[in-house]
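Before a colleague's protein record goes any further, I have to sign it off. Alongside the sequence sits a line of tokens, each denoting a local backbone shape. I want your independent view on whether this chain really folds as the tokens say. Where you disagree with what is written, explain briefly why. This is what I was given:
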Amino acid sequence: MATDDVKLIGSWASVFVMRARIALHLKSISYEFLQETFGSKSELLLKSNPVHKKIPVLIHADKPVCESNIIVQYIDEAWNSSGPSILPSHPYDKAIARFWAAYIDDKWFISLRSILTSQGEEEKKTAIAEVEESTELLEKAFVDCSKGKPFFNGTDHIGYLDIALGSFLGWLRVVELDAGHKFLDESKTPSLSKWAERFCNDPAVKPIMPEITKLDEFARKVFPRQQS
């Protein structure tokens, strides 16, 4: 869909920005991608998100929308006649998807990040165990939510919860390399392992999924301890 009034403030390396980009791609919405410089905040960003002062920010018709999951929901509703529905249609399925999306951000992601910020092997082992436990819970959630279909929302296309978790897959690979531990293991999480491959190869995702080598180099700047 051709449009000239959509802008996205973000960074190529941000999983949260990637959520918004995937949603826009699913809806076939063209947009201007305004990349922030790492370590600084543009005047437009500060003006558009004066509360949190962080990316991503979607600007639609000069009106800013902040926070990644809220942006994804906004895109689904603002362009409801374009592309597939991102949120499930049934209120219960919608509530469950939002529950697990919050779990991913508030629990799973926090533990994942702790692996890169851990001080000492014991702290790292604890973080690895937490991620492994959380990932096994997400494996069960996928089986329950997908109902035998390829994606979390129980359909043949990417939905809200797929975006919420799938945006982390590049960073998950970086953490796996750092930790020397594979979290999406075919023996422990067979459904998620297959899902991850489908997600990364989807036309809405593949062109914007960061290269692992490039992402790893970026991670070394953000988490200096990796350089040791």
User: Anything to note?
Assistant: Residues 200 and 206 are 5 Å apart (CA to CA). The radius of gyration is 17 Å. The beta strands are 6-10, 32-35, 57-60, 63-66. The mean pLDDT is 94.
